[in-house]
Amino acid sequence: MKRLITRIFERHDPIMRRALTPAEARVWIRPSGGDHSLYRPGDVLQDRNFQHELPLKASAVLVPIIERGDDFSILLTKRSALLNSHSGQVSFPGGRCDDNDLHAMETALREAKEEINLPEQNVEVIGAMEDYETVTGFSVSPVVGFVNPDFEIIRQEEEVADVFEVPLEYILDVENHKVESVFWKGENRHYYVFPHEEHKIWGATAAMLVRFAKLVNEYEQCAA
Fold first, then answer.
1. Is the four-CA dihedral 40, 41, 46, 51 of positive or negative sign?
2. What is the pTM of this model?
3. Domains of the chain as residue ranges with CATH
């Protein structure tokens, strides 16, 4: 599985171009996908009601694939209820790009170290997926990497309430890619949801997981 996913990102993000794109370039490029593309499926004009003016706010997250021999899982965090935005939601380690960050990969690795004490040397970055525009005006770069779990998780308690893992095979199973909707700001909002016993995985995090699963599944289908 590791070899397969690595090969996919060698093709999807050659020379890690997306992972190494600096924030000042990304904020002026509107992502093709995001929260807006699920508000009114098939109605592109209405989607504009939920897009922000450029420049967007640059951020990056790490999509950490935990590697234990032949077993793989995705590590996720639950944001603290004390945070002003997206409190209590499930997310990837990550956050807003600092002025000193050279690129999205540096932001993702720095934030993962700050939030859960994940050492940079434990992460083998293989690339990034397309940026994702959130309804809050962020352009999020999902940086993907394999993680050696031989480290002590220390939560930054002001930001992270919990850390947990979801089996990779569960993420790749399209039967778990659910879509729900809610009426919000005069429109019917659609968003992805992954059913989970303890945590509700939804919104941008779920959408990025669906995108990751599609990359893997479509490659496997083409190779079959």
1. positive
2. 0.91
3. 2-223 (3.90.79.10)
